[in-house]
Amino acid sequence: MSRRAHQQISVTKLALLLAGVGFLGVGGFWLYRLMGGQYRTVETLDPESYYENANNLKGNTYRVEGWIGNSLGWNPGKGRLFSIVTQSQNKDYVLPIFVPHDLQTINIQKKQKYMVKVMVNDQGILSVLEMTKP
Length: 134
Prior knowledge:
Elements (H helix, E strand, L loop, with lengths): L10 H24 L12 H6 L8 E15 L3 E10 L2 E10 L12 E8 L5 E7 L2
Parallel strand pairs: 3-5
Antiparallel strand pairs: 1-2, 1-4, 2-3, 4-5
């Protein structure tokens, strides 16, 4: 009765295989972040359309990426109003965003970059639904 020889995987082949899997994992994560992360399926807000007539956008959900400019107001029962600076077509636009009271646990600081999922409310203000740092 003959025995079959067991072929062993060499250490070099195993190292190359692990490096390839690691490279694919890092590349996939980078691509996921580049494409907008968790808000990639949400349409990006066009600041010019918002400036022209925010009433046309009421009830719609958008993605805004930018950095916090200033704190514009605060009401303990309702929430906080901030300005967010976003870029579109190499121009800076300053937009008001309202952070409701239920999102008060987010530590928002000036000049920090955020990715925000917003809804244009009945008053035409961008009301934050979700907010993360990219």
